[in-house]
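User: Hi! I have a protein structure encoded as tokens and I'd like to know what sequence might fold into it. I'm fairly new to this, so please keep things simple.
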């Protein structure tokens, strides 16, 4: 098993559009994580992700419950009851509760295993343990506007304004045609990257070393990290010993990048890429994905035609 490719992709322009929502979500999460925790007394498995819906959380909970039962465990689901009116704690009863009461997902899961709905996690945990639970399966969903206000010490208008900005940007993105042109490289970006690429391809690594900062940092993703011009110089020396690469200036997910091709397959997709950060016209950071080529799988890339 390995981490997904998108972990290593550069920030895209789509992600930039979502930055107001991301900042709000991250701040709320940080506040929550600073709160003192509580000992549940039994194992708790949290199932969640950054998607609002349709990402497979409920099927994952059901699959985990099946596996746990095969191990003679007694799983109980603890849910916030998203979409339901009951605050709980209450054990979901399909004979007397509706989706309007407890939410559609808790009602569906209750056909297979015990489900407790509670806005208050501690109170819900107590009720779940009263159902003879040996392990808790807990969903991870978003906060209400009122909860965000309390956690962030923001006013309700301030929270709504942040959400409105994010939604406005999403609507603008949704209206944009799929074939809309993406921003190209600026003249400065193109000049710097072309100079680096041409000298790299010419194997003029002395000239490359003159382009890097004294305190340069390099990450050879999945392999090692190097700091300072002396250490990073060894990295260039390793490239000088091999000939399985050819560089081109381009973009990955809308960000300026150096695309790495097989020398005898320049018309094929690139096998990896490099990202450079600059400081006062010197290369300050290099991220080389030579040993994490899967990072470009499915990514949007383009060779610069300027």
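Assistant: Happy to help. Inverse folding works backwards from shape to sequence: for each of the 306 positions I chose a residue that suits the local structure. Here it is:
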């Amino acid at each position: 098993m390995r981490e997904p490719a998108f972990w290593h992709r550069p920030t895209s322009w789509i992600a930039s559009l979502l930055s107001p929502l991301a900042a709000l979500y991250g701040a709320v999460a940080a506040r929550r994580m600073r709160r003192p925790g509580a000992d549940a007394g039994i194992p708790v498995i949290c199932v969640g992700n950054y998607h609002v819906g349709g990402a497979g959380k409920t099927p994952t909970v059901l699959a985990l419950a099946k596996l746990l039962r095969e191990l003679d465990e007694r799983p109980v689901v603890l849910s916030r009851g998203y979409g339901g009116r009951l605050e709980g704690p209450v054990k979901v009863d399909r004979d007397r509760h509706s989706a309007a009461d407890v939410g559609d997902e808790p009602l569906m899961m209750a056909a297979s295993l015990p489900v407790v709905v509670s806005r208050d996690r501690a109170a819900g945990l107590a009720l779940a343990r009263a159902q003879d639970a040996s392990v808790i399966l807990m969903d991870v969903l978003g906060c209400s506007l009122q909860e965000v206000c309390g956690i962030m010490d923001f006013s309700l208008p301030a929270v709504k304004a942040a959400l409105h900005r994010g939604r406005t940007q999403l609507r603008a993105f949704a209206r944009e045609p799929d074939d809309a042109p993406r921003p190209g490289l600026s003249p400065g970006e193109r000049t710097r990257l072309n100079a680096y690429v041409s000298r790299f391809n010419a194997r003029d690594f002395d000239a490359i070393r003159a382009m890097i900062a004294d305190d340069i940092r390099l990450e050879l993703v999945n392999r090692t990290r190097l700091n300072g011009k002396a250490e990073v110089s060894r990295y260039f020396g390793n490239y000088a010993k091999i000939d399985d690469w050819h560089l081109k200036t381009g973009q990955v997910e809308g960000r300026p990048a150096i695309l790495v091709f097989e020398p005898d397959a320049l018309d094929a997709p690139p096998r990896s890429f490099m990202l450079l950060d600059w400081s006062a016209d010197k290369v300050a950071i290099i991220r080389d994905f030579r040993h994490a080529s899967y990072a470009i799988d499915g990514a949007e890339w383009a060779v610069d035609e300027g």
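A useful reference point when you look it over: The CA atoms of residues 80 and 121 lie 8 Å apart. Feel free to ask if any position seems puzzling.
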